[in-house]
Amino acid sequence: MTLDEMKESLLSSQQKDAYEKYQQTFAARPQANAASGTTMLGGILNRIAGIPYLLVLVALALPLFTVTCSDVPVAEFNAYEITIGGDIRTSSVGSLDQIAREIDSSYKNQSTHYDASPWVAGIFVFVIAAAVFSFMNKAVLAIIAGGISVLYIWITFLVGYFSCRDLSTSAMGMISVSPGAGIFLSMLLIATALIMNIIALTHRQ
After folding, report:
1. Was domain 44-204 assigned CATH 1.20.140?
2. Residues 133, 141: contact at Cβ < 8 Å?
3. What is the pTM of this model?
4. 80-99 per-position pLDDT tens digit
């Protein structure tokens, strides 16, 4: 092989290597851009999910459960009232005297004060934590906190429901407890946020 042939062969080899590197670089760039766009979408969804979590704090000001007597609403309680306690008359949407007349006149002498339930504050703690984790782009932690807040809300309702069973029995079934607007709206908002967190998590992988 002559010197000129060796030069041509070497030059051809260098050109081939340069061309291959060029192809690899520009072929990988769309994939990197796509991955970056997917990760960015996940981050945006996570941060948006923090908004429904914060709105849950507003929804919890609506009644979590309503007490009715003969299908007439007589009292309703939201999460804030249950947490700090108070006088049932301040939460009344009807007249408790109606219960006294229909059940027993001695009921009038019973205290209408209900004690604070500090453990209910766990709802607010986990809802706020879920919002913070969403804004911090930590989808897994947000999902866990959001799921626990759902359990807390339903446990609060069940505690209220079973606490009224004895009264309902003595009233021959005239008193009943049903979920209020606060529960349904809170569930809707948390479900929306959780779906966003889950989608964000899948787009990050």
Report:
1. yes
2. yes
3. 0.68
4. 988 888 665 544 544 445 55
